[in-house]
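User: My collaborator sent over this chain with a note saying "see what the structure looks like." That's all I know about it. Can you take a look?
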Amino acid sequence: MERHNKELDFLISGCKAELPGAQRKLFTRYFPVMHALALRYAKDDMEAEDIVMIGFRKIFARLATYSGAGSFEGWMKRIIINSALTIVDQHKRQVVTAPIEEATLKFKHQIDSAPDVDHLISALKTLPGTLKTPFELYAIEGLTHKEISDTLGISESVSKTRVCRARKNIRATLRVRERVIQL
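Assistant: Without extra context I'll predict from the sequence alone. Here is the result:
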């Protein structure tokens, strides 16, 4: 959890007053974290940057609604995730999938590269979107099923079911891969 400090409070106040210098500092400070988050949902780096830019516009527009309760970074992440999901929903009609190798390269910048991690990422990429998104929101982003249901417009029980099915699919994919390697 992020603790509020005077510098962050000063930046937030400056951004609320629409001071370009404060907005630039806030953007520079949080861009790497938000970009890494957007990469999880984007089809490529360019789309991730678009998500971050759209998200920061929303952050600056909604800054007056931030009450100061909870993590500021967490509040911003929620906006970035919602922006990413909106863009992903817009692209649902155009199903574009990246080769697994390209997707794996995208994640290697964020986590240590190890054979098990590569297999896990590959297994995650094989999930259909209806299972992948709730699983990532739960397992990676740490959202509760209530938060996932609110974000995706599904019931909590559907969220739980999809996360459970995603786990089963990932386990099955990893077991098959393990059997192939043993042969």
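A starting point for your reply to your collaborator: Residues 43 and 96 are 8 Å apart (CA to CA).
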